[in-house]
Automatic annotation (TrEMBL):
Its main location: mitochondrion. Pfam families: Misat_Tub_SegII (PF10644), Tubulin_3 (PF14881). This is Tubulin nucleotide-binding domain-like protein. PANTHER family: MITOCHONDRIAL DISTRIBUTION REGULATOR MISATO, PROTEIN MISATO HOMOLOG 1. It comes from the Eukaryota. GO terms for biological process: mitochondrion organization. It is found in: Mitochondrion. Residues 120-250 form the DML1/Misato tubulin domain. Residues 2-116 form the Misato Segment II tubulin-like domain. Involved in the partitioning of the mitochondrial organelle and mitochondrial DNA (mtDNA) inheritance. Keywords: Mitochondrion.
Length: 251
């Protein structure tokens, strides 16, 4: 079938990736419409939701930091019941418990319009807080990978240096074997993998994380087609940060 599996690393990549998946979703056609010009089976995977209904979700892994996903959760309308049942079955503690929850993030006006089935408002810098604010799709829970070691926009532990990303990958891979835990389940669903499509930033720590990830892929999978789309932050910033971004890009 020549499937394509997409890997997205970090904020810049996920803003771009969300537009990419929204565009892919816009090509879906339904009964009575012309045939779609795109073979969706290449980038989307069939599945079964918690209620037994058929699902169709992107073949993607989305990596980001704690606090970066906004209103997007691993559990969603397609998989929420399944996740709740699993959490109940896995509970091994028989003593008393106390839940501590942060206040939920309010959905954006764009998301509210999508939920209501009305025309969403235009996107602006003021209305978009997270890349999930304009996301159209449901993702499989395995697609969402939050890295809790660093927090979005943290001033105490900024995720900015290339070496920081390399170190984080090495630590996580040593503990979890990221390819086996995250990527291999998607690869095993493919009949004939065409390529891995990688979206990443180049001028921050995600560049180092992605470089290490690609090294592991090369070691485990050998030769193959990998498309890497790198992005850089074009916003004006301090001279110190500009020099850091240049140093990261030169790695």
């Amino acid at each position: 079938m020549h499937e394509i599996v997409t890997l997205q690393f970090g904020q810049q990549a996920n803003y771009i990736g969300t537009h990419y998946w929204n565009t892919q979703e816009s090509y879906f056609t339904y009964a009575g419409q012309d045939e779609s010009p795109i073979n969706h089976d290449k980038s989307f995977r069939p599945g079964v939701g918690a209620d037994g209904s058929e699902t169709y979700s992107p073949r993607t892994l989305i990596y980001d930091l704690k606090g970066a996903f906004g209103t997007l959760r691993r559990e969603n309308a397609l998989y929420q019941l399944q996740q709740q049942e699993e959490s109940i079955q896995e509970g091994g503690w028989s003593g008393s418990t106390m839940s501590l929850q942060l206040p939920p993030i309010a959905p954006s006006g764009y998301q509210q319009a999508l939920d209501q089935g009305v025309e969403p408002p235009p996107l602006t810098n003021e209305t978009v807080r997270f890349w999930s604010d304009y996301n159209h799709l449901f993702y499989h829970p395995r697609s969402i990978v939050q890295l809790n070691e660093y927090e979005l926009n943290s001033s105490l532990m900024p995720f900015e240096k290339w070496a920081t990303g390399e170190e984080l990958f090495d630590n996580l891979d040593r503990e979890h074997d990221l390819l086996d835990r995250d990527l291999r389940p998607f690869l095993e669903e493919c009949d004939q993998l065409q390529a891995l499509q990688i979206l990443t930033s180049l001028d921050d720590a995600w560049g180092g994380f992605t470089a290490k990830y690609l090294e592991r892929i090369a070691d485990d999978l050998g030769k193959g087609c990998r498309w890497v789309f790198g992005s850089q932050d074009g916003q004006r910033t301090s001279r110190e940060k500009q020099l850091l971004q240049v140093a990261n890009s030169a790695q």
